[in-house]
């Protein structure tokens, strides 16, 4: 059972995915159960970022009804590999800082991946990495790493406390996709003490950390954004009629 706060956040997130669907040429369906697994790995791995690999779930093709509801006006069906399937089980591949997380150690690569690969090993179709206490906006290193991706790259930004050595960082330009859009972050100029007092708690991590916010984006190696819908175990987006 996925925690109820995460299901509520997924419904709010999907609401935005609906409102913004015409701005994306394609979408992916990510089971929220996987997000919950990844969150627990992410907190257990702090202060590192983690890298997750996924393959398409071949047994769960996306049906036409979902394409009609979730695709935008400029939808195209040939953008990336695995586009016709729900995203499959997550695999924890690596941990490290914002640069090293993308570089899977050679001995791992030899053990886990086929010979033909990029810096992260080209075995998996889709990738996700975490940004602990940082917005989900790709860095230059992220954009470089994505050049080897056949599917999509996702970034999960996690705002939490206690913060550890790195307080929440949001001084980056780009499109933000919070899971709790009604609690939109205040603009720069507010005193940081004030944000501390005002920020809500979405849920609690397995490690006891308070989770104040989540952000999730997906993008194609060409730099174009890909819409994300959070789905149940049957591949149905939460909150979609
Ligand atoms: Zn990154």
General description of the model:
The structure is a single chain. This protein has 241 residues and is of the alpha+beta class. The protein has one domain (4-220). It has 6 helices and 10 strands. It has helices spanning 4-19, 32-44, 64-70, 106-112, 140-145, 192-198; strands spanning 27-31, 49-54, 56-61, 85-87, 91-96, 126-132, 153-161, 203-204, 210-219, 225-231. Strands 1, 2, 5, 6, 7, 8, 9 and 10 form an 8-stranded mixed sheet that branches. It has a two-stranded antiparallel sheet with strand order 3-4. It is globular. The two termini are 21 Å apart. The relative contact order is 0.23. Mean pLDDT is 87; it is low at 184-191 and 193-197. It binds zinc ion. Residues 98, 129, 131, 139, 142, 155 line the site of zinc ion.
